[in-house]
Amino acid sequence: MTGRLSDEGVTALHGAGGELMGKFLAERVLPLFQLRSAGPIGLDQLDDGAVVDLPPGHLVVTTDNHVVKPFLFPGGDIGRLAVCGTVNDLAVMGARPVALTLGLLLEEGFPFSDLERVLRSAAGVLAELGVPLVAGDTKVMGRGELDRIAINTTGIGVAERVISDAGLRVGDAILVTGTVGDHGMALLAAREGFKLATGLTSDVAPLWPLLAPVLASGGITAMKDPTRGGLAAALNEMARKAGVGIEIHEEAIPLRPEARALSELLGISSLEVACEGRAVLAVVPDRAEAVLSLLRDHPLGRDSQIIGEVIPTYPGRVILDTGIGGRRFLEMPLGDPVPRIC
After folding, report:
1. What is the model's pLDDT at position 20?
2. Which domains, and CATH codes, for the chain?
3. What residues have CB less than 8 Å from 297, skipping those under 6 apart?
4. I want to staple 57 with a disulfide (CB 3.0 to 4.6 A). Which of 78, 158, 217, 263 is the partner?
5. What is the per-residue pLDDT across 126-148, written as a single tens digit (0 to 9) for each?
6. In the chain, which residues have pLDDT < 50?
7. So what's the pLDDT on residue 14?
8. Helix/strand/coil (H, E, C) string of 241-282?
């Protein structure tokens, strides 16, 4: 075996810790990431860990595994999704992301061209946010032992004031920062066996640039990103944790016509399908319109809407006002109706 890397795809030796893995990292991974340190020891040193110098505030840490299928999808790929999913978990807790780790699980034979695309997407989001990749790991599994690629990410953030998803208070307005269900429906349409030309693209995007000015303005009592289980799961979890009721007005929920049509065709509710670039906010009543205006000033929040309010009745439940004289419970989904979308 020579030290020359394959021109086509990953081999077991690229994850085995030897010379080939070193060349793989030096030639195909590290050059893609502009920022690689948040302290005296970072990714360049390839040590057993990174040292991160943190600004004052509350330390917030989150981790996630990403097994999306297909790993390339309309509007993004697993690399962009992995970074956005993690920094968004920080953002909805009021935390500015300051460092990220990334672990790759690759199937033997995974094409270098696809890997470069995925890593460039991940690096692009980090560059946009000014967040360094400080540590990582690569493992290669045999053919058939893994479905192409999986990514683990851990995010480190700092918050001046931590925002919980359980901070709802009676009277708070409920806002959503854009159309719901786009990510899950776009992936569903792209999967093998669903040859549907919907024009839908994933909403996957980093939320911190949208939420930072809103947090600074005040009035936010709770936040959550509606990923697995979509808007329905996020609202139910928030209501249960806070011990309050939530009433949502169906006609106020922003939905793309394409997502609505696809959900009706397949019998899947857009309210139960994951978003990857949206947030649900609870806002004190006298700040709701000001927060809505701030959200709409940002391109990512131009479709933001006030969709409901926190109520004292039906604690732990979500009521959906259908707008035609009917009201029903919006139940917590038993599970995500579209698996492997994040």
Report:
1. 84
2. 12-159 (3.30.1330.10), 173-329 (3.90.650.10)
3. none
4. 158
5. 999 999 999 999 999 999 999 99
6. 1-5
7. 83
8. HHCCEEEEEHHHCCCCHHHHHHHHHHCCCHHHCCCCCCCEEE
**In the numeric block, which tokens belong to residue 305?**
């809407």
Q: Is 252 exposed, middle or buried, given 0-12, 13-18 or 19+ CB atoms closer than 10 A?
A: middle
Q: Strand, coil or helix: what is 306? A: strand
Are the beta carbons of 60 and 159 closer than 8 angstroms?
Answer: yes
Query: At residue 79, what are phi and psi to the nearest 5 degrees?
Result: -70, -50
Shortest CA distance to 304 belongs to which of 278, 330, 271, 323? 278
Task: Please state whether beta strands 173-176 and 245-249 pair in parallel, antiparallel, or not at all (unpaired).
Answer: unpaired
What confidence score (pLDDT) does residue 179 get?
A: 98
Side chain identity at residue 112, one-letter code: F
- What does pTM read for this prediction? 0.94
Reduced to 3 states (helix: H, G, I; strand: E, B; else coil), residue 12 is helix
Query: What is the distance between the alpha carbons of residues 177 and 250, in angstroms, rounded to a whole number?
Result: 15
Amino acid letter, residue 341 = I
Nearest CA to 96 out of 175, 211, 204 is that of 211
CB 199 within 8 A of CB 243: no
pLDDT in tens, 49-92: 999 999 999 999 999 999 999 999 999 999 999 999 999 999 99
